Fold this protein.
Amino acid sequence: MSIFKSLIKKEVLHLLRDFRTITVVLVMPVLLLLLFGFAISTEVNNVKVVAVVDQHTDETKQIIDRLRNNPYFTFEGIVPYHEMESVLRKSQADVAVVFRTEDGKLSHQIVVDASNTNMAQTSTAYLESVISSATGIPVVTNTLYNPQLRSAYNFVPGIMGMIFILICAMMTSVSIVSEKETGTMNLLLVSPVRPWTIIIGKLVPYFLLSCIILTLVLVLSYTVLGLPFSFINVINAIWVTILYVVLALALGLLISTIASTQVSALLVSGVMFMVPVVLLSGMIFPVENMPLVLQWLSCIIPARWYISAMRVLMIQQLPIGYVLTEILVLLGMTLAVLSLALKKFNAKK
């Protein structure tokens, strides 16, 4: 245990001595969170729509036909009123259009899932245009999960997914590869210390650094950006983030077994993580809008599942049962990557 503590102390001192890196690592999440939270919006299509109709008329049929034929929408069918909320909660639809007929007059209401702000704003505008052009009747809109349509809500989970990949995977891989370049890794491996003790000792400081960053991000999210606060959902978000951090650390360890220099480790990390996280995770561009091939490819991007889970937990404020699929996928990835990384590391030691 004393040797293990010494290894952790060595890595912590190494981090603290590199003041510029520590400054960048701690300041970067704040800047990215504020920049992406306030500055970016995107266009969406393929909005999933369901209709709730209490009485079919020629007018409702005309509007539904317009929705079916509109290229911006994917009409998912007609559902009963009592199933509408469940359909939205399960992400089977992004928007529900409620048609009511009272005294022979047709009224409309739009119920939209606003956990993805950009999609909520755009889809609401599209629907209002389609319905108003067909009837000339004003539309009542009700937004769920994000009634103020604040764009910051959409990017907090995405920034978190990107930051932890940067800190845990890239910095960890570079740290281990630098030990190889200087020859100190070989000295450690021939010492009486077991290889797994060395690896854990190098990973623990980056795990602790990630916990500090997670604290900063959560404080900013719930204070400056005004995300809805729920104690149980914060705890759930922390546990899911810890799982994601462990996965990112395992990815960094895997890269360190592939790369032989710090430059190559950075290049591999950039190609494998930075570009896919930004483009294929749903952080900026909705996955549903991508070609089918890219949608399948995005399934192997850990950030896609993490960001999806964070949107449900932090923005929609739903119980953890709604993200069991994402958690199981992340857990499976963690076990697979960690096993492969340890196997390759032991083979090269």
Summary: The first helix runs from residue 2 to 17.
